[in-house]
Structures are given as structure tokens and as C-alpha cells.
Amino acid sequence: MTATTFSRLGLAAQTTATFTLNFTPVSTGRYLVHALVVGASDEIPSNDERVAHVLVNSFLFSDPVVNAGGWMTNGFSSDPDRWRVVNDTDPDGASHSRPSAWRFGYVATLLPNPLPPAWHTLTSPAISVSPSPTFLIFYHRYDLTGRTVDILPVTANDTDEAYVEVSYGGGPWIQLARYTGRDLSWQGASLSLTANITGPMTLQVRFNASSDVMGKAGGWWIDDVMIASLGLGRAALFLGSVGPFDAPAGAIAHIALKLANVGDYETDFRLDAILPAGWDANLEGGSGGLLRGRVVRLGPDNDAALRIALTAAANATVGATYSAVISASAIADPGAKASMTIQVKVSSGFPWGLVVAVGSFAAAIAVLAVVVLRRRRRPRT
User: Fold this and answer.
1) 171 half-sphere exposure, CB direction, 13 A CA radius
2) List of domains in the chain
């Protein structure tokens, strides 16, 4: 762990400041960069903290797709649908890391080939590997449908198919992943190759797609293809104070936390809580409601502010400190989990929140009684 301090005087509110941080990793792995603003006195203290991650990896192959060098495609240059490198400035261009990426899809052609292949392949050069943890990593987006208006569900007749395949030592092609439908946000993919690498060998990666359905604006975009020692993963952490917070028995302790996604995927996290008997946890603000079971979706290095209302049991012992565990688990990988143990000390103060609630209820009964009496009063004769 290292610490670096930056100073910027006279920074106005709602202003962005950029600082450059350099560090030398001692090994491969996931490194976290935790930024803390000192003296900001924000109304929500967790807003003064941000966290991001860096995945330090070792690569046997890495191609940011600047050009087509080393890759092979089948078919002909006159095929109406084919693989080619596109730039961000092209009408059909998009890249994960600028300025270019592979795209399979329609290309306007003066004299298109009337008999194109049924499947269109993009094949990597041979890559030397040896027995050790080995992962294929790439980033992609796709629209394999032929519809101009979304109608769900997408059926087999509405989408082309896209496969990721690997050949070990010149052997048969083995399918690792299949994609259909549409997802035009860039997503990372990480596929383990370790089990089939039994000795020193070469392997090749192939992206294989059909073009029976997809529209002219659709396609499959591939970028940043890598063979690495570590795969992508999911991870999360909480930021904020663990207390102790003070609350009378039966009253609410207001807690501000921040849930951060420090993994490599856009991830849905399910919130949960382990509470003392008779206690309750709810979310404040927004749609509110129960904390348990709430799902929060976060992109990599994004975070969400959580305002939690932790209600102490009415019979909680004054002076005692209770622990409440707030957790978030990735739905796609329950092992990717963050938790924070919050301490709440039961104070001797009077639970005014409970008094207000009881008072409101009593007032409602009084109003109802007056209405009933007025209805029962007979008119004078």
C-alpha cells in the first residue's frame, strides 16, 4: 500500500480536477486506487471518496486492433457481409479502445458475391502457450437481429448466431461462447483456456458468425483481443463510516454508504443485511423500501450512494452496542461480495420518531371519533 497527497487550492464547487498517479505493481493482480478529499465537509461524507481499480496482467498475446495484421478471414472481398477493420469515424465504426476495431456486417459493394459463405470467420495468428492459467479476453458489442423495432422475445428466426472458438495445437475448433440477439454496449468477455493446455503448444482463436438475418446497420464488433494469465472478474466494496452511530431504542440511525464496483464487468449486486433481532433496514430517498433484496446495477468503477435507515428494536438495551452487517453480492457470481459491519450504540434519548408516529396515529383516531359523533348527532326539531 502506498499513499500520495495532492493539493489544489481555490477549487470551486462543482469543479473537476485531474491528478496523475503512477505506481509500480509488484505482481499481477487487482489493484485499488482510493481517492479521499480531505476537509471537504460534504453533507454526505461518502461523496468525498472515490475508488477505481487497475487489473495488472501478463500477456502472451495482445491486439488493440489498429490494423488487420496477422488475422485471417474467409470468403471474398465482394461478400456483402464480411469482416473488416473499421474506424470510429466510419458510419458503421465503433471501438472499445480508439481508434478502430474489427466489425463483421454488411458492406455496400458494387458487385456483391451472389454465393457468400454461410459462416464468416476471423482467425487469429498462432499463439504459443504453455501449461499455466490462461484466459482469452476480448471486448465486443453486437446487433445480430434484423428488426428495426424491438419486439420481445427474440426467437431463432429473428437473430443470427456468433461463436467464439479455439483450436489447440491445430486440432478441431471448440466452441467456447455463443451470442444471439442484440447488446450494443461494449462488454468484456473472459474465457478460461487453462484446462486444454496440457503442454507447450500453439492455439488459435476464431470469431465465427452467420449473416442470414442481421440488418445492414447491425454486426459484431470485436476489439482488444488478449491471451493473458488472469481473467476478468467481478468485485465490489463499501465506502463510508462504520460508526458507532447513536440511536435510541425504537428510533432510526441514518447511515450513508457508497457501494463501488471495482470489477471488470457491468454487474447487478443484490443487497442484504444481517440484523439483531427486532431491528430493520430500509433505503431512504428515491424509491425507498426494504434494503434486503434490492438490486443495484453498476458499471466498472462506478458507485451508488446508499442512504440507509437502520431502525433499532424497541426493546434494545440502552448503552449496548449492536452490530448490523450490510452486504452486496454479484448475482452472476455470489462469491464476488462486499460487506460492512455497522456499529450502533443505543442511546438514552427519547425515540421522538416513534412519538411522532404514535401521535399521528392518535390524531387520526381523534379526527375519526369527531366525524363519527357528528354523523350520529340528530337534527334539532
Assistant:
1) 10
2) 59-228 (2.60.120.200), 233-381 (2.60.40.2310)
